[in-house]
């Protein structure tokens, strides 16, 4: 059984990381170098605007529901009645990978332009900011416990799957903002030299998901850490550093 857990956790982790990389490439039209230009967010499309918008909104809703519902304690408790506790997070990561793959494959391009930056230097700068946002997201996972967040630690340590994860800590980025993982997502969604209608729909949908997801997450953190998190929330802004940050 341990070997199955190791394999399940490892596969889920690899697919989770691969899906994140694929989404980053998809969302800013970097699939072409891989020979997958048809999977770019702005690839040619013949769907009508109405049908494309409906499909894309359903895909965003699927991502939001899966990502938020599966992260809630009640759902986790229900899932662990069917699966070993140490495989719950790997299942979440695997489901996320599947939803991202579905989103990329079925996304309907909506290529009408809202803005397009022509300056090569400006395009390069915005692209750097795009990847910087996703780098912030990735680095922030390591500041907490990357391998626990992606379920790998639990699958390899079934006797103590949550070791070290229930301690409240605010390392580096977390001393500046409460949710640097989501900060990077917001930056990545807004930083593009070519904003099409489809790209804007994805950006608005993802930022809306971030807002709803953070509301639910903050409620869970308050329930878990009480006044400790309440004081942290008073002192530290949610997504972007504040020049008027309160002193502890």
What's the SSE blueprint?
Elements: H1 2-27, H2 49-69, H3 73-79, H4 88-106, E1 113-116, H5 120-144, H6 146-149, H7 152-156, H8 180-190, E2 194-196, H9 197-225, H10 227-235
Antiparallel strand pairs: 1-2
Helix pairs in contact: 1-4, 2-4, 2-9, 5-8, 8-9, 9-10
Structure description:
This protein is mainly alpha-helical. The chain has helices at residues 2-27, 49-69, 73-79, 88-106, 120-144, 146-149, 152-156, 180-190, 197-225, 227-235, and strands spanning 113-116, 194-196. A two-stranded antiparallel sheet has the order 1-2. It is globular, with a radius of gyration of 19 Å. It starts with a helix and ends in a 13-residue tail after the last helix.
Summary of the model, kept short:
By secondary structure, this protein is an all-alpha fold. It has one domain (2-235).
Neighbour order of strands in the largest sheet: 1-2
**H/E series:** HHHHEHHHHEHH
In whole angstroms, the N-to-C terminal distance is: 48 Å
- How many beta strands in the DSSP annotation? 2
Number of domains: 1
Oligomer type: single chain
What are the segments in which pLDDT stays under 50 over at least 5 consecutive residues? Answer: none
* Mean pLDDT figure: 91
Provide the helix percentage.
55-70%
Structural class: mainly alpha
Core attributes:
two-stranded antiparallel sheet, 2 strands, 63% helix, globular
